[in-house]
């Protein structure tokens, strides 16, 4: 049996009606939806490849847009977290350093995924017809599936712990749910 009292108390710190919080949720949900819709549209129509003159140029442009959207999402996440109260019982060095360690592991997964896949492998090159010679099975793909998604989620979790933020934890759950849906959609 689950004791929901702790969850209710924790999320009593979160104002889900706050405009910044809503914008953060929308930006979190928008990103994977955007890149999946655009990539599938490109795969069917080759419209971006035609506009940019080549699949590689189109993929690089989409990758740049995705990076900008990820910066916007992170900014919205941070601003929403800062505008909500901290959980004072978590505002200790051990929580901060635990969050820092989780973020470091997440960063390791994100960067090593990028290095293993390259830019076009990371940013949906397969939808543009830019295929890798073989499936990547080296680290971090040897440890878990979709390490970039879960690494990103870990970064947000760590960031939330570092700021003792219940709103950040709830937004991290939204990130995890969005990525879970994206994995189902992509699979």
Description of the molecule:
It is a single chain. The chain has 187 residues and is mainly α. It has one domain (4-186). The protein has helices at 5-11, 19-45, 47-52, 55-82, 93-122, 147-162, 166-186. It is globular. The model has no long low-confidence stretch (mean pLDDT 93). Pathway: Lipid metabolism; Phospholipid metabolism; phosphatidylcholine biosynthesis. Keywords: Endoplasmic reticulum, Lipid biosynthesis, Lipid metabolism, Membrane, Methyltransferase, Mitochondrion, Phospholipid biosynthesis, Phospholipid metabolism, S-adenosyl-L-methionine, Transferase, Transmembrane, Transmembrane helix. It is found in: Endoplasmic reticulum membrane.
Question: What are the segments in which pLDDT stays under 50 over at least 5 consecutive residues?
Answer: none
Shape: globular
How many helices? The count is 7
Radius of gyration: 18 Å
Keywords: Endoplasmic reticulum, Lipid biosynthesis, Lipid metabolism, Membrane, Methyltransferase, Mitochondrion, Phospholipid biosynthesis, Phospholipid metabolism, S-adenosyl-L-methionine, Transferase, Transmembrane, Transmembrane helix
Protein name: Phosphatidylethanolamine N-methyltransferase
Pathway: Lipid metabolism; Phospholipid metabolism; phosphatidylcholine biosynthesis
EC number: 2.1.1.17, 2.1.1.71
